[in-house]
Write a structure and sequence with these properties.
Elements lengths: L1 H19 L6 E3 L9 H16 L3 E3 L1
Parallel strand pairs: 1-2
Length: about 60
């Protein structure tokens, strides 16, 4: 019985570590717009620059 409780406790603690994830990892976001040369392609590039300045932990391309 003690062994089962110990294994369950270790499993719960390990699960908490795996679910927490890295805290300093940079997130990447791909902003899909239109083919190169289109109006929305240019608009999307400008929007990505604005988002990169406003959100330093996220890299938008």
């Amino acid at each position: 019985m003690k062994k089962r409780i110990f294994i369950l406790g270790v499993g719960i603690i390990a699960l908490c570590f795996f679910l927490a994830g890295p805290s300093d990892a940079k997130q990447f976001l791909s902003l899909g717009t239109a083919p190169e040369g289109g109006l929305y392609y240019i608009w999307g590039g400008g929007w990505a620059k604005v988002m990169n300045k406003a959100l330093p932990d996220i890299e938008v391309t």
